[in-house]
Design goal:
14% helix; Lipocalin
């Protein structure tokens, strides 16, 4: 009887020092910017969802395309969803893969990392390595990243009529904090 209690106390004490292995986010920020000769388009969403498995350095993130706000007009948002991103057919963008670097998640600090994985936008998968800044904090893990996406890489057409108003290269920014699950 005493042996079982001792084991239980040891298990409880030791588990208090074990770092959680899965960290998640439900409200990360994704922003994008299109700088074309005749028009600047900015939009963002606070609906980035993701998970990071510390034991394997694996990650998975997704964003609902219709969640983006901040376009120059309601018509521009409608064209974004219906004509370009085809949000009914391709409702999400996804990035999943593995962090290349080995990180000591038990130590607070900032790390420059490379995330290697599959970026799926508009139903088209591209293998990507995206550089990011990862910070281990007291509260969780913060990830900040800036990268570009070519519309042509994801079969997103730019009609001639709007060629001067929509850039092929879109600048994307990510800022999310993940917490122990």
């Amino acid at each position: 009887m005493h042996y079982a209690r001792l084991l239980m106390v040891l298990f409880i004490c030791c588990s208090a020092f074990v770092q959680p292995l899965i960290y998640t986010s439900n409200n990360g920020l994704v922003s994008f910017r299109s700088e074309a000769p005749f028009e600047l388009i900015n939009a963002s969403s606070k609906e980035l969802k993701g998970a990071l498995d510390l034991s394997k350095n694996n990650f998975a993130f997704r964003i609902r395309i219709r969640s983006f706000e901040g376009f120059n007009s309601p018509l521009q948002k409608e064209h974004f969803n219906e004509n370009y991103m085809e949000s009914e057919k391709f409702p999400e963008a996804v990035f999943n893969g593995k962090i290349i670097e080995t990180i000591d998640y038990s130590k607070k600090g900032k790390y420059s990392i490379r995330a290697k994985g599959k970026l799926i936008i508009h139903g088209v998968e591209q293998e990507r390595i995206i550089k990011s800044d990862l910070e281990v904090t007291e509260k969780g893990i913060r990830i900040i990243s800036q990268f570009s996406v070519l519309l042509s890489d994801h079969a997103i057409p730019i009609p001639r009529v709007v060629k001067e108003k929509l850039a092929n290269e879109i600048n994307v920014s990510i800022n999310t904090e993940l917490y122990a699950k």
